[in-house]
Specification:
This protein is mainly alpha-helical. Helix content is about 50%, strand content about 0%. This is Gamma-type small acid-soluble spore protein.
Length: about 70
Amino acid sequence: MDQSKGHSGKTIAGTDINQVKEQNAQSGLSYNEAKAFIAKNMGGHGTEIFSDTDSLAIRQELQKDGKKN
């Protein structure tokens, strides 16, 4: 272990921390990014904060369509 810096960039088990960080950066979506993607594209209970749908506009459109029929 490099005592001058206090650490060598590796864990006690020998895992290269910088390599893990690099692999994580290239691995795709983070947990929160995946959660937001699923909510926007799949819908579901409690996902309103992730939705870009204007629910008021949809309700008004449905009411207009209902009056036509």
